[in-house]
Design a protein that fits this description.
Elements (H helix, E strand, L loop, with lengths): L8 E2 L6 E5 L2 E7 L1 E2 L11 E7 L3 E7 L4 E7 L7 H12 L7 H5 L3 E7 L10 H15 L4 E5 L1 H9 L6 H4 L5 H23 L1
Parallel strand pairs: 5-8, 8-9
Antiparallel strand pairs: 1-4, 2-3, 3-7, 5-6, 6-7
Amino acid sequence: MINTYSGAIHLDLGKRQTLDFGGVKLHYIKADLDRYLVFPDSTGAICVGVDPGIHFGITILSHFYVGVMWGALPHLDQFPGVEAINFVHRMLSNESPWEMIFRSGVAKVIRVEGPAYREMVGQPLLEQVRFGFAYGFMQMFKDVSYMQPNTARYRAFGHGTKAGKDIWVNVDENAADSIGLALGAAYDYVSQFERA
């Protein structure tokens, strides 16, 4: 089960890099791993978890690599989703530090945190940003979808009330929650082979 792999990911803030990435101040850590495999090697996929918002977190996860980043989009009064789309396009571009990862021939599985069911009132600006991140990835990859927060937590950690920020307390909450979403994406990918 995927949730057994969350303990293998260790983030050391001393290894944090700060990048000015297309006008976004981005913090980035390549995680230390207790074991070579974060999830079963047979998956052969790159899994991405996105905790969307003006303040966001993104995790890139594979059997050989875990990179966690967080930052803040430029504040736009009307169309923050456009900034999210532009950020993803820069991330997937030839000038990106992650170009080789995204250009590899393996499957890409992207999960963007969807709205929480318990929210009584919609958050239109957050929804624009959420859609912006999803749409940016959808232009390059097929397996992109929203994942509800409790679903991601259950799939990543085995319990719907345990969040990434409860495990990786030394990093930004958005970054920590994006790890859970990446593990949830890995769960989705592995599950399709278990059902076959």
